[in-house]
Amino acid sequence: MVARVIPVNPFDLVIFGATGDLARRKILPGLFHRFRVGQMPLESRIIGAARSNMSGDAFRDQVRAALEEFVAADQRPSDDLAAFLERLYYVQVDATGAAGWSELAQLLRPDMIQAFYLSVSPDLFGSIADQLSKRGIATPDTRIVVEKPFGRDLASAKALNADLLRSFDETQIYRIDHYLGKETVQNLMALRFANSLFEPLWNSTHIDHVQITVAEEIGVAGRGGYYDRSGAMRDMVQNHLMQLLCLIAMEPPARFEPNAVRDEKVKVIEALGAVTPDNIVRGQYRDWNGMSGYPEDAGAPDSRTESYVALKLAVANWRWAGTPFYLRTGKRLRTRASEIAVVFRDPPHMIFPPMEGRKGNALIIRLQPDEGITLRTTIKEPGPGGMRLKEVDMDMTFADALGSDLHSQDAYERLIMDVIRGDQTLFMRGDEVEAAWSWADPLIAAWEESPLRPVAYDAGGSGPEESLMLLHRDGRRWRAIGA
């Protein structure tokens, strides 16, 4: 199946921090792929902006090297690569000073869509936004893209929002969370709201519980300094997992329009009940079977920072009363896997003999590594000899069902094209970010005030034993990671 490519209008995209790791690994390869499939018009230009002193040719050589490293050889024909590099420019800009802004202004074309991607530290967001505004570079139609972290608590998130709103309207600000660009995450809305099969069942009458898992095989080595100041709650739960929870639990919006969708997501966060200490597990991986532990990887022997969090949450509204949401995320687990499991209630009266090991109906939405959807159903086992039941999976792996080209698209390239279109549906609004921090702050504050350390779990395992009890005491079980 070939994806239908809908070109966007010509644009000038300025990438601040264009020589950084995110630009090299994700942003520029994503733009190259969009160019190669014909979605990026030939008139469009990409302007790198950074403090490094280099020529345009040197920047293009650096981008060429990045594409050769992060784009497969069969996906970067030499003609396409050369044509893409011709659309690249570079300006040396001092984000906090005066140098380079006049040169940047001269490069930009007022008749084109203008977007500014701030792939820089959040402490530079305000100064760059101020410079774009006071120097007359930004227009009323300018789009500005900012990367997480959107603060480290409610106070800093509010300060960041205020910095941006001094120069830009909320309709111009695109707070990017790459999880929302994943094909399966976007399919959550299509699955629920475009199919009469599921939406009538999407409530506590029919759904027993929901599990959201984001497991990572890697540890924190190489980014221990950042991670030890953040931890799993700030790094993953408050943003990525919260977004997945919102999409699963939200009410149907009146229309598929950015603010209508985001209004419903905010309502979910505001409906989250208080989380008691017995419904939270914090863990930190320890060395095991030749793998290093968190203190070693983070360079912090006495660290009390969590590398694993599991929570039991309740959404206090009519739709979800009595249906718990279990969230977990962790580093150095047995494999890399992200999924949402919607587990349905058993029939009110089972007329067949009990089936050993029965797990029940479930809708499994896989985000990575193999994006797809699985529906677990119960059928009769083939053959004579009575009514023996068997559970089978009805599987749709996107790479198989929709073609490998769709599967290979990265979340960043989808989201950047949405920026150019002016579509904010998959981007977080300021009040949404602040609502998430309002929920997370009391939990983090309680941990920081507590003398208790996170419980230890073996590197390469499934997380702390205590997280298993979070479900066991409710008569439930976590799905095996990577099942």
TrEMBL record:
Active site: 240
Annotated positions binding NADP(+): 17-24, 51, 148
Signal peptide: none
Residues annotated to bind substrate: 178, 182, 216, 235, 331
Pathway assignment: Carbohydrate degradation; pentose phosphate pathway; D-ribulose 5-phosphate from D-glucose 6-phosphate (oxidative stage): step 1/3
Catalysed reactions, as listed in the record: D-glucose 6-phosphate + NADP(+) = 6-phospho-D-glucono-1,5-lactone + NADPH + H(+)
Taxonomic placement: Bacteria, Pseudomonadati, Pseudomonadota, Alphaproteobacteria, Rhodobacterales
Family: Belongs to the glucose-6-phosphate dehydrogenase family.
Organism: Shimia aestuarii
Recorded GO MF terms: glucose-6-phosphate dehydrogenase activity; NADP binding
Pfam families: G6PD_C, G6PD_N
Single Gene Ontology BP annotation: glucose metabolic process
Function: Catalyzes the oxidation of glucose 6-phosphate to 6-phosphogluconolactone.
Protein name (Swiss-Prot/TrEMBL): Glucose-6-phosphate 1-dehydrogenase
Domain of life: Bacteria
Entry keywords, A to Z: Carbohydrate metabolism, Glucose metabolism, NADP, Oxidoreductase
